[in-house]
Amino acid sequence: MNGWTLAATVGLAGGLGAALWGVATGPLRRRVVAQNLSTALACPGMLLLAQGYGRPAYVDVGLVLALLGPVGTLVFARLLSDELAEDPPRAWGLTWTAAGLGAVAVIALCAATGPGRAMVKLLVVGALLVGGNVMASRALSGGFRGVRRG
Length: 150
Known about the structure:
6 helices
């Protein structure tokens, strides 16, 4: 076991364990935030595993998670908008923590990878991960100012 796989194991076991517990229990507002958090933690884990095992194909799994995770959260926000309007989730601390951890993982992987196509792919995954999860959290907490709920 090298440092990359150790970091992935710690992140996946600790973070995803807590996120899955949050998805399975508690009020609706906590469950949708935990669902968003689970994808925000699984994506950097897959990127770290790709580096740890030397398998660039795992980066594609991270890319799919970075794309579909926030989309799933937006679908939940849309479908559950009436219930969430009564008691909107406020998890900006978790959102920025997950975004920061994702950014740190991507920066460390970019430094290890070096310049090239793989680094560009990692930067795209990182931008999708951070931007998508921040946008999805904003949608969960009541939407964007000036946009009507439709």
